[in-house]
Amino acid sequence: MVSKWLKQSIAKDVELLNAIEEGKLDETEAGEYFMSLKENFSSEDCFDMLSYLSLSLRLSLMKRKHMILTENNSEYDPDDEELEFIDSSKPVGGIKKLIN
Question: Residue 77 carries which DSSP code?
Fold first, then answer.
C-alpha cells in the first residue's frame, strides 16, 4: 500500500518538475492554479514561487530516493547529477530571504 502510494507520488512530482523545466506547466492542474495566481502577484514573486516549487520537488525526490534505498539496505551514494544540483542550487530572489 505504502509502496503504491510512494510510486504514484513520485510519478506526479517528476511529471510536475518536468513540466516546469520544459515550460509546459500551464498544461497541468497545478499550472492552471498557478496561472490564476499571476493576476495577484508580481512577475518576480511568480518566478520565486516557481523556483521554490522546483527546488522543493527536486529535494523531495532526492530524499525519497534516499529513504527507499536505505529501507532496502542499499548504500546511498548521491550520483554526480545530484551533487551538481546541490552545489549549483543558489537562492533566487525572495527565496533568499526565506533561508537567510
Answer: -
SS3 78: coil
Q: How far apart are CA 81 and CA 43, in angstroms?
A: 30
pLDDT of 44-92, one tens digit each? 888 888 888 888 888 888 888 777 777 777 766 666 666 565 555 544 4
d(CA 90, CA 87): 8
- Contact in structure between 37 and 46 (CB atoms under 8 Å): yes
| Amino acid 26: pLDDT | 84
- Interhelix angle 2-21/43-71, nearest 10 degrees: 140
Phi and psi at 24, nearest 5°, equal: -115, 25
How many Å separate Cα 59 from the centre of its chain?
6
